[in-house]
Design brief:
By secondary structure, this protein is of the alpha+beta class. It is built from six helices and nine strands.
Length: 157
């Protein structure tokens, strides 16, 4: 499992953009930036839609004021789902990342098997990256939502 001081793996993710989508390596995406990356088990799911993503949307300016260059939300969903969810959540300030095959999630050791819920999904977490290096890591225990919420992460910056 990824740990403090590790560099984010150089694995491709799909960045959802207003123009479409771009495939880039996570290492390249976060290079030279202070970033907050948070993961949800699934777009349009209850806690993710009611609390996790909205918390970062509401506090985006506060994160920027703390020197965060990019706030990214990743899920093991395809780019079309991530685009629709971002639009529905008015998440213009958040970079939506699709990890459709769970390549980055697995490379970081943060996958979980959910069976009939959706198969392989990501554990819920947040991390603070500086130039692609993990400086802070907040991994939730199963079915929990405390340490990775926007308010908790912001309080550590």
């Amino acid at each position: 499992m990824i740990e403090l001081g590790n560099t984010i793996p150089s694995v491709s993710v799909t960045v959802v953009t207003p123009e479409g989508q771009d495939v880039v390596s996570a290492e390249q995406l976060f290079a030279g930036k202070k970033a907050v990356l948070f993961a949800v088990p699934g777009a349009f799911t209850p806690t993710c839609s009611a609390h996790h993503l909205p918390g970062f949307v509401v506090l985006a300016d506060d994160f920027k004021a703390k020197g965060v260059d990019i706030i990214a939300c990743i899920s093991v969903n395809d780019a079309f789902v991530m685009r629709a969810w971002g639009e529905q959540q008015n998440a213009e300030a958040i970079t939506m990342l699709a990890d459709g095959g769970a390549a980055l999630t697995k490379a970081m050791g943060l996958e979980m098997e959910t069976g009939d819920f959706g198969g392989v999904r990501s554990r819920r977490y947040a991390m603070v990256l500086e130039d692609g290096v993990v400086k802070q890591l907040f991994i939730e225990e199963p079915k929990q939502f405390e340490v990775s919420k926007a308010e908790a992460v912001l309080a550590t910056l």
